[in-house]
Amino acid sequence: KVGVMLTIVAFACVSLVIFILKYVFGSSGPNPFEKDCREPLKEKVYDKKEKNKILKQGFVASKVPDNLDAVIIGSGVGGLGLAVLLAKVGKKVLVLEQHSRAGGCCHTFTEKGFEFDVGIHYIGGLMDHTPFRCMLDQMTNGQLQWEKLENLFDHVVLGPPENRRSYPIYSGSARYSEELKKRFPGEEKAIDEYLKVEVKRSMLPSVCAVCLCPLPLAKFLIHTGLVKHLSYFYKMAPRSLRDVVNGLTENKDLRAVFSYIFGTYGTPCCILVSG
């Protein structure tokens, strides 16, 4: 324990030195969040032709401007988000996409009169004044609207018709836990431990700190295994979802409920209203 504490103290000292050198004696560069970019809501666009003028711009070499600062391959959430941040600090950015439209997992398609989500269709952590919500509002000039999902918002259905089991899923950690415990009596300990893992998984400041370390120091922390003592994230990263949930409970249905939302993983509360 003493060795671990000394390692943590040493890491904190190194991080502090890096911070002082970079942000006190060095130039911090432009800040895309320096000004409040939120604007009054504009009228939604429903006409497909008008929307496709933005979402389906075919590549023409003559349209590529000179003196580009950055070229981003892929117009998914990450690519478009990075392009917005660079553009907000005055950079000239080109985003290239091999698909017929931009958006990645955020775009939709229509089939036989029904609109389908390609990927992301609900997301959590979007309460007013939370860091994530403020970041998205700033990046989108406040033009994305969010609708709170009803509670309950999902069902996990398991088994064949003759032995069908349905487990309701509620948003919010407290309600989520409470309802699971009602459906799985005797599994309270496993449910509480699962939620602890979820909470620790989202605590990533130390992960960002390692990314800011000098490369030799970061490699040293990783290769020696010391990085596992700095963040729960690094301790859990080598383990699969199956390993984690199987270690919590022997109940196969509860394992399925813990795992079903893998991909969006968490307890979502909002749905994106696009237009």
TrEMBL record:
Cofactor: NAD(+); FAD; NADP(+)
Highest taxon of source: Eukaryota
Membrane topology recorded in Swiss-Prot or TrEMBL: Peripheral membrane protein
GO cellular component, as recorded: endoplasmic reticulum membrane
A single BP term in Gene Ontology: small GTPase-mediated signal transduction
Gene3D superfamilies recorded: FAD/NAD(P)-binding domain
Reactions this protein catalyses: all-trans-13,14-dihydroretinol + A = all-trans-retinol + AH2
InterPro entries from the UniProt entry: FAD/NAD-bd_sf (IPR036188), GDP_dissociation_inhibitor (IPR018203), Retinol_saturase (IPR052206)
Keyword Kinase listed: no
Alphabetized GO MF terms: all-trans-retinol 13,14-reductase activity; GDP-dissociation inhibitor activity; GTPase activator activity
Predominant location: endoplasmic reticulum
Keywords: Endoplasmic reticulum, FAD, Flavoprotein, GTPase activation, Lipid metabolism, Membrane, NAD, NADP, Oxidoreductase, Signal
EC code: 1.3.99.23
Cellular location(s): Endoplasmic reticulum membrane
Family classification: Belongs to the carotenoid/retinoid oxidoreductase family. CrtISO subfamily.
This protein's name: All-trans-retinol 13,14-reductase
Organism for this UniProt entry: Poecilia reticulata (Guppy)
